Amino acid sequence: MSATLISNARIFNGVSVVTDSGHVLIESGRISRISLRDPLPIPEGCTVVDATGCTLLPGLIDAHVHVYQDVNLLETAIQYGVTTVLDMHNEPEWFQDISKVTKQRNDVSDVKSCGFGATIKDGWPAAIVKLVSQEPKVEERISKWPNLTDRASIEGFIARNRAAGASFTKLMQEDGHTMNLPFPTIPVPTPSVEIQRAIVDASHENGMLTIAHALTNHSTLSVLEAGVDGLAHASIEPINEQVVKAFKKNNAFLVPTLAVHASCSGEEQESREKFSANLEGTAKEHLLGCLHITREEFTIKNVYEQVFTLKEAGIDILCGTDTSTDLLGTRAGASVHHELWMYVNRCHFTPQEALISATSKTADRFKLADRGKIEEGRLADLLLVGGNPAESIDAIADIQGVWRNGERLARKM
Ligand SMILES: [Zn+2]
């Protein structure tokens, strides 16, 4: 692959805007040189991109998606500048097939996965999967999920999951009570704090961080007590001091997933319209659709307040959406733009704080040391947009170029 020089760009390096007119040289898929002021010499055969008036950022990271076997999700996400997604529960064979694709192709987002979630019998997400489909092949698939019961089953699970390519561990703490759904068992069975603690400990012993699904304050406190490193959703209940303290005690991060909360509660229809404006047909219908499963007493306004309160308390917020192709109200890539817009317009983030949540912060917390920042030696996973998204987050949608591993994406939109 020939070298590329991106010249005269404002550079947001993942943390802040470091220059209004800088130069970034890409060689062999990586950022090889950065000059914040003086032009760089142009290597022979190098492609030069004049980025005057544009901002160069690290490729965005969506810290909560469900890829399953869906290459199309990755092809779509990267069109929006999302160069990495974190997959939060999958079948290990499906993830291995997906990994082959992401290694061969630069026109798809890269994926890091937890492989199997740390599931228990009839617990989350089996309860919701069974509700959606009673097909025998689905039943058979679920029967192979971890079904954790004790320390020995947990240690075996972590070892197998890691060997199958999992980069981190996802815990589930969901009794279903925020949702208006006829689950097979109510409440949905949840793991004890002891089981969750053993999962966290076994993961940490294997060098894997842990992230948990929880939607209420009670569940959030329970997994934080078990020692998790982060939460895969914001709670939908009003925040209280106890929750803030528990986050602080663990130095836990939060992945809010406002996109899915909004779909579940049937709110934010107007802003979904804004982010589906360029779409057509089923893609548009899908993003404009809503799950409408949250019980009436819960509202996303609680979530906005929680995200703001935790951010103000110094808790790391990592941008994540819970997008999957089957989930109404979400769409790969577009939901990341929507999520960032909500951080700024609903949770009082500065645009710069929103950008940090989708780049360097996620790379730091998930130990993705090869991406998430514009730094010499890191992967050339880059996004070029018109204007300055560190001043106005709307500029994130004005995409002028996307690179993964130094290769420029042929854009379809
Ligand atoms: Zn999820």
UniProtKB/TrEMBL annotation:
SUPFAM superfamilies the record matches: Composite domain of metallo-dependent hydrolases (SSF51338), Metallo-dependent hydrolases (SSF51556)
Ranges of residues in domain Amidohydrolase-related: 55-407
Top-rank taxon: Eukaryota
Single GO term (MF): hydrolase activity, acting on carbon-nitrogen (but not peptide) bonds
Residues in the signal sequence: none
Taxonomic path: Eukaryota, Fungi, Dikarya, Ascomycota, Pezizomycotina
Protein name as annotated: Amidohydrolase-related domain-containing protein
Pfam families according to UniProt: Amidohydro_1
PANTHER family for this protein: ALPHA-D-RIBOSE 1-METHYLPHOSPHONATE 5-TRIPHOSPHATE DIPHOSPHATASE (PTHR43135:SF3)
Xref: Gene3D superfamilies: Amidohydrolase (1.20.58.520), Urease, subunit C, domain 1 (2.30.40.10)
Gene source species: Penicillium cosmopolitanum
